[in-house]
């Protein structure tokens, strides 16, 4: 359903040697992968509602179908008022994650990437990386100082992926023989798909490292005690302004329909949320939850099953409140928080410190990323 983090585990192989070998590998046409990630937005107010029956959305959503190098000047994002082109994205992947990508992207097989579920996450991650690089410069930090951490983030992430891959193959009864050449190919493919995501995570670790004193951890725990063992139940309404298969922004006509639908939803909702489930059943594009009035239960503060913006928004509301519209990689969401439930209680002990430390870092990295997007005016056009 939604992106889940892979487990971290050690895998015995020489990573530096693998990276060097992978750089020599010819580009491999990538198979299909699940969708990845995007940012947030705002604005909403409700009012009473006429009754109606209608649900259908456009049967075949249309979105820009880019090609490379034909559309290399297409502006995919904007940061600090400066455009980021498709060419800049392709060059970044070529230089940092997948040597030979520029040449591969121009081939017939490479063209498929620009209408796949990889391109929208790449654009979002590239824009975020650009914003965080600007953030580092405003802090007087030298970008080269981040390089060791970026490499380490990739190493750990790939180790986790490789460990999961081996476990899945063994569970399926398939013999696993990871010769160096096979590992090299897996790494090359992993860097193509997830290199930008690992780079973004590395920048967040660089700008917000885990260096907290016991006093800071105790204060964080005291101020955020409800997130440890607490869960919230929400209802949400999804309006698609992105293609459901690829996550690419719809064309102008598709977005206009989406914003008209959003206006309709906002007009129907009552301020107290008492008819939220009814409107969700009628108008939400998330058909899996619409039948239940848009309900999503048992959401932790940092719940890897959902986009960060949904968890962040759900936990920022009080019971009964309705959010402003927020964007995710799936579309525009309006959230109604139903209730909070403290299903277990945690004491501040030495054994609890790792979990508190992780929560504090994730909280601060979220704050950093969302603030950087706002400060540097990140806009996505794909």
Element layout with pairings:
Layout (H helix, E strand, L loop, with lengths): L14 H10 L50 E5 L2 E4 H11 L4 H5 L2 H4 L7 H20 L8 H25 L8 H28 L6 H10 L6 E10 L12 H17 L7 H8 L3 H4 L4 E5 L8 H9 L9 E3 L2 E12 L10 H23 L3 E2 L2
Antiparallel strand pairs: 1-2, 1-7, 3-4, 3-6, 5-6
Helix pairs in contact: 1-7, 5-7, 6-7
Explained architecture:
By secondary structure, this protein is α+β, with helices and mostly antiparallel strands. The protein has 13 helices and seven strands. Helices cover about 45% and strands about 10% of the residues. The strands form two sheets. A four-stranded antiparallel sheet has the order 4-3-6-5. Strands 2-1-7 form a three-stranded antiparallel sheet. The two termini are about 20 Å apart. The protein is globular. α6 packs across α7 (about 180-205). β1 (about 75-80) and β2 form a beta hairpin. The model is unreliable at about 1-55 (pLDDT under 50).
Low-confidence runs:
1-54
Computed Rg: 22 Å
Largest sheet: 4 strands, antiparallel
Strand order of the largest sheet: 4-3-6-5
N-end to C-end Cα span = 21 Å
Structural class: alpha+beta
Q: Helical content, roughly? A: 40-55%
- One letter per element, helices H and strands E, the order comes to HEEHHHHHHHEHHHEHEEHE
Number of helices: 13
Q: Name the shape in a single word.
A: globular
Tell me the strand percentage band: 5-15%
- The average pLDDT is 86
Please give the number of β-strands. Answer: 7
